[in-house]
Specification:
Length: about 350
């Protein structure tokens, strides 16, 4: 009986600790909010001095990110389309789904290393990280809500008012504080510990196979001009030769700039965690890396705005493709994909 009581005691204590931690009343292991600029990386574009990172602000942003209260009918959260294991995108359908099962017109982008971004969305329609959430919040096929409505909901919440006070010293919820809290969470989504990164830093765990090294050489020859190391994007917009989907009729950045030179141009996405973030392209038309490489070697559609790098045919043997995919898999950052700080502790 005495042994059983001891066992029950430890189960009770441990279970209670997990419950309290999940509610955010005590720090979780590794719950620090120290933003890191990895060695050899450029300085971030986001000005952290104007939105100082704090543990309270980070945790509030995390709770908001996972809370469907941001949508009009409280059914859809940011995490509905951005799940951690896939690099904070979705993998179960080609186009994003919103409230009432409505289908969007684009594949969701991954969310990491956002502090280095110069613009957001496939067409670059947003140029500030703090403002970016307004796009899905107000989109009628995503969250179909307004910031004013969200503020009203949160101000009537006994749960949120003390959290906003802890983060900003004011229990009155404002739209600015909602957006700043979300930014404190998303700016911390940093990915820089893949096998590739450890190889570059000459660290344990970065030992590349012969195939992966061949793939790196092929990548630097054919891909790196747009998917530039270390971010694996140049933050530009390019026409990568995809035929227009006649159902979606999406011509990309021209919808924002109205400049014919931007027709069929879309944001160059980062290739970090690419093996985990399928489907690929702005409309999710490809389900595998093999299909992507088939497009770049056999499927390019010429047009006046086609990226100059693609105007000369890319020739890859089957072995080259295998090696290139082997390298691309080294960009998966398991530490980021399974980082407990970015899990949902609220619900």
């Amino acid at each position: 009986m005495k042994i059983k009581r001891v066992i029950y005691f430890f189960v009770f204590v441990f279970g209670g600790f997990l419950l309290i931690a999940s509610l955010g009343f005590c720090p979780l292991p590794g719950d620090d909010v120290n933003f890191v600029v990895p060695p050899g990386w450029p300085q971030p574009n986001y000005d952290l001095s104007k939105n100082k990172l704090t543990e309270a602000g980070f945790k509030l942003g995390r709770r908001l990110f996972f809370d469907p209260v941001l949508s009009r009918d409280s059914s859809t959260s940011c995490a509905s389309c951005h799940t951690q294991f896939s690099g904070f995108t979705h993998v179960d359908h080609s186009l994003s789904h919103g409230i009432n099962g409505l289908k969007g017109t684009r594949n969701s982008l991954t969310l990491f290393n956002l502090a280095w971004g110069t613009s957001f969305m496939w067409d670059g329609g947003v140029n500030n990280l703090e403002v970016q959430p307004l796009n899905p919040i107000t989109n009628p096929v995503e969250m179909d809500n307004t910031l004013e409505s969200i503020v009203k909901k949160l101000n009537s919440s006994a749960l949120y008012k003390p959290l906003f006070y802890a983060a900003f010293g004011d229990s009155t919820v404002t739209g600015q504080h909602v957006l700043k809290a979300l930014a404190q969470f998303t700016v911390m989504l940093e990915s820089f510990n893949s096998k590739y990164d450890k190889y570059v830093r000459h660290e344990a765990g970065g030992e590349m196979s012969k195939e992966e090294l061949k793939g790196l050489k092929i990548f630097r020859k054919h891909c790196a001009s747009c998917h530039t190391e270390p971010l694996f994007t140049n933050n530009a917009f390019e026409n990568n030769g995809l035929p227009v989907d006649t159902e979606l009729n999406d011509y990309g950045r021209i919808r924002i700039t109205h400049d014919p030179n931007d027709s069929l141009k879309f944001k160059v996405p980062s290739l970090r965690n690419i093996a985990n973030s399928y489907p690929y392209m702005h409309d999710g038309r490809f389900g595998s890396l093999g299909q992507v490489l088939e497009h770049y070697t056999q499927g390019i559609v010429s047009s006046p705005t086609l990226a100059r790098q693609l105007r000369k045919k890319i020739r890859l043997s089957d072995g080259d493709k295998t090696d290139l995919i082997a390298f691309l898999k080294t960009l998966s950052d398991k530490q980021f994909l399974f980082d407990m700080r970015f899990r949902n502790y609220a619900y």
